[in-house]
Amino acid sequence: MRPLSIWCNVSYAPPLADELRRALAGHNLVMARQPIAVNLDCGEDDPAIDNCDAAFGQPPPQAVIRCPRLRWVHLNTAGYERFDTPEMRAALARRNGALTTSSTVYSEPCAQHVAAMMLAIARRLPESLDNQRQLRQWPAADLRRRSYLLTHQHALLLGFGAIGRRLAELLAPFRMRIVAVRRKPAGDEPVETVSPEGVDALLPHADHVINLLPGGAATANFVSARRISLMKPTAVFYNVGRGSTVDQDALAAALHDRRIAAAYLDVMSPEPLPADHPLWTAPNCFITPHTAGGHADEHQRIVHHFLENLRRFVDGRQLLDRVV
Fold this sequence. Notes:
Blueprint lengths: L4 E4 L7 H8 L4 E4 L22 E4 L3 H6 L5 E4 L10 H9 L3 E3 L2 H20 L2 H9 L6 H7 L7 E5 L3 H10 L5 E5 L10 E3 L4 H4 L5 E4 L13 H6 L5 E4 L8 H9 L5 E4 L19 E3 L10 H18 L9
């Protein structure tokens, strides 16, 4: 295969930027005029992408659709909501193109983040931290009485991609009943898996409802007010998918009315969450500012993941984390 022209709108600091340039020495690296500031941005359109074979980062979707030469897009995120459209799929299909993500990079930290949330609420760590910072009392009897074990509890995973699979592995030692929900069950999943039509029957029995769903029209408000009402009062809800998949007003109301036990939220709509949003002060609502996927070598792992997929693309092998 001839050398590729690879457009990129992610700016990395040295020495990672130097490593990327060295790795692409046999290709033509085309840097965008305006690199993106954060991963969730797609940046401005750039005519330079029109003459490129591949794109790395967050290219504007309209540019991907219009460029007949562009045959491979690798996103530096796990999410691909803005690219999951009929127009995008049709455009890539016409040129036998591919869209890949960095899901593999984020599966481990996101799964560990959820597991940490689950253990924290079970062992009443937030209450102990509040007590240390404020009252400095010794509520041992109350905390011991309200602590519980994850062992044999029921976890419902809404979504079963890379994060869900890794989370199921982390939870296996607790001998929990784990049921996953995915759009099209393949039949070879390592845990019991159902289609979305089965969610309502499972919600009343779940101790932990873990939302891993991507954004998009198909998942908007999937966790609706009606579905929140189906959860039992002792259930804990977690969201590391996308904020748009949850009716946040209904969730806040359920927490205020004590109709569910707690919520751990890493993603919101919008982000940042406004300071006056009711979720900030909802009882037993614990918020992390979209940090579930973060880790010290995050950028390095993204670059290495892209380079591995580049080798596969050049060799004509199966791409990692391919979604289109």
